[in-house]
Request: fold
Amino acid sequence: MASGMVRVSWRRAALAMAFAVGLTFGVGVASAQVGLGEVLETQNIRNEMAGGGRDERGANQANDQAADAAPPADGADGDLPAVARTGIDKWDDTHSIFRQREASLNWLKMLPVALLLLVWVRSADWINRDAQIFNLNHNAWNPAIVAPFVIAFVVMLLIPNYVIGIILLSLAWLVPFVAYAVHHNKSVEPHQSVFTGSWFRHQVSEAGALVGLKIGSEKKADYLRGPEVDLVAQGGDERTNQANLLTARQSPGYVHVKELVADMVTRGSARVLLDYSAEVVTARHMIDGVWHNGEPRDRESGDVMLAVMKQLANLNVSERRKKQDGEFGATYQNKKYACELTSQGVKTGERVIVTLHGSTKQSGIKTLEQLGMREKLRDQWLEIMNADRGLVVMSAMPEGGLTTMFDVALLDCDRLMRDFVAIEDAAAPETEIENVPASFYDAAKGDSPSQLIPSLSRKYPNVWVVRDFVDAETAKLLMEEIDLDRLVVTSCHAQDAAEACLRMLQKKTPHKEFARELIGVLNTRLIRKLCTGCRVEYEATPALLKKLGIPAGKVTKFYRVPKGEEIEKPCKVCSGLGYRGRTAIFELLQPDDQFRQKLLKEPKIDVLRKAARAAGMRTLQEEGILLVAKGVTSLQELQRVLSGS
Reply:
């Protein structure tokens, strides 16, 4: 859904209703105040006249009383009717007209208006959400449902006839609402239509279920069963993808694929390995970088599930021996995932790997502190990233969080006061980052970033973002850009910062220029966090503290995963794994003159590691021990991570 889109909420509904009631009440009070003002003005005029006419009225009253007491004149008929007289009211008025003495509000007339307002708000909210879900141009329909009602509401307050006003207000709500419902039903599949007979039966059935009544309704389409996962066919053109999706929905395996995706998201599984044997399909999930056994399934359901995944990825469903790679999409819990599918025939049957890829934006991580970087280290890193010139290298082990770290590092640095350009492979575009426009080359055709650098250089960018140097020519041109006082940001796979320097030299980066222009190397390692719901504390002995280099008395206890006999019942937070989620540890190398000399004259891993520590770099081990001392992770997990397993 597009950012900034208008959403109508119940909170806004309440505010809108309060505004309407307040406005109507204000008009009523104002009208009452005008009426009372006229009465007071009339009374003041009469009081002024009362001074001159009081004697006359007194004389008249005396004469009237005398006339009433006198007997009728001779010849008068006592049966004649008396002349009708008008009484004198408290305002000294001589006629009887009903006057409203207090401000009032007709609640019987307000009730239909309030009900219409609530119905309109609910309708506008549904139209807004529905139009976004089905891509029915919510930017056009939102004003179409809001503007007529607001105008009609104002008109209703101005015209004196209540009946005409309420009719106009009703039409202002009903006409756009019906128009959208008709448009919706024409634009979606039959089972997604609204306000039809089957729709009403389903609503009645759902309402009855809330109070324990079983009311029959129209049967759901089979592919709608299971978790609320929307699958998207990919790998072909639009027509082919649509045909593949319709075909996949006819299979019972469609629901199995939905269940698989939902299960992976719930477990926090980034990858699932399915091994097909003669009778059973075993599953293993990679959760937080570690493989865990999953529940096996029978071969029949596994086959139809695999057929649906291949259909959605536009692969050959009948091919079970050759290697096939494809991708399909999925949306679950308002998050989109790219589902990478790889299948390969093996001796026992077939092996399938399904990998879920989300985006950094969806994770909500925008700063390196959210990834686990200490504040002081982050300040040092941002100083490097905001430099005017130099070469910056980010590194991690394969599948060790390099992409996420790179994205967040760009999100966290200054992108407003500097001009960025990025060069990416068209076949593997990275997450789009604001103010970092990307240009693409086609590696499949033999292209490289070096072909784009000359033309992009004429835009005078301040920062170059090239995640992979690819070839020697690209490295040479980018090092020349640094001579023009520009910053170059790149990356590579490496176990630590020292190894990253050697990896860059392996990419044919000019040796002398690399040693001179390198200003920072950041390396990261992902480490699992202990589950706070079931972790077990134990005493930090003096011997252990000394071994870890922690001063005595600084830490009194560490934490670990509970042992089997300590578990009363499986933890609901981590599903009994002992860990939940991951964080990162970092080491930041800021080369000094001694390190540059070693890099130029003696580029060996042990020599560079020693020189890096001499330059003041805190190692991954030292950063990890801090997390152990804080109870974030366990000593056993740190040992596993640093061993590279």
Summary: The longest strand covers residues 518-530. The first helix runs from residue 10 to 69. The chain has three domains: 1-46+105-188, 229-358, 364-526+584-625.
